[in-house]
């Protein structure tokens, strides 16, 4: 099992949830208002007067067989609007209850 954390501009919310639905990733937790700044390109998302946009984040646990397809879906979302920003990070889940 893998944990996948997806950080994204709030404008991507529907597309990210649709990608999860498409791959039958039912369970996730979402943080609606998240501040941040990408490590390479894009605008900061601080919710301030100067940088008004905000991020959201989703964490989901998926079977190993889903990870590659989920990352491909996230990459497609990013390629459609690169300046908005979206990234996904994957790590091993050792145990779960």
Topology diagram in text:
Blueprint: E1 2-9, H1 13-22, E2 29-34, E3 55-62, H2 64-80, E4 86-92
Antiparallel strand pairs: 1-3, 1-4, 2-3
Helix pairs in contact: 1-2
What does this structure look like?
- This protein is of the alpha+beta class.
- It has a single domain, classed as Alpha-Beta Plaits.
- Helices cover 28% and strands 30% of the residues.
- The chain is built from two helices and four strands; from the N terminus they run E-H-E-E-H-E.
- It has helices at residues 13-22, 64-80, and strands spanning 2-9, 29-34, 55-62, 86-92.
- A four-stranded antiparallel sheet has the order 2-3-1-4, covered by helices on one side.
- The longest helix is centred in the last third of the chain and has 17 residues, at 64-80.
- It is globular.
- The model has no long low-confidence stretch (mean pLDDT 93).
Low-confidence stretches: none
Structural class by secondary-structure content: alpha+beta
- The whole-number mean of residue pLDDT values reads 93
Which strand-content bin applies to the residues?
Answer: 25-35%
Query: What topology, given as strand order, has the largest sheet?
Result: 2-3-1-4
**Helix amount:** 25-40%
> What distance lies between the first and last C-alpha atoms, to the nearest angstrom?
12 Å
Shape estimate: globular
H/E element order: EHEEHE
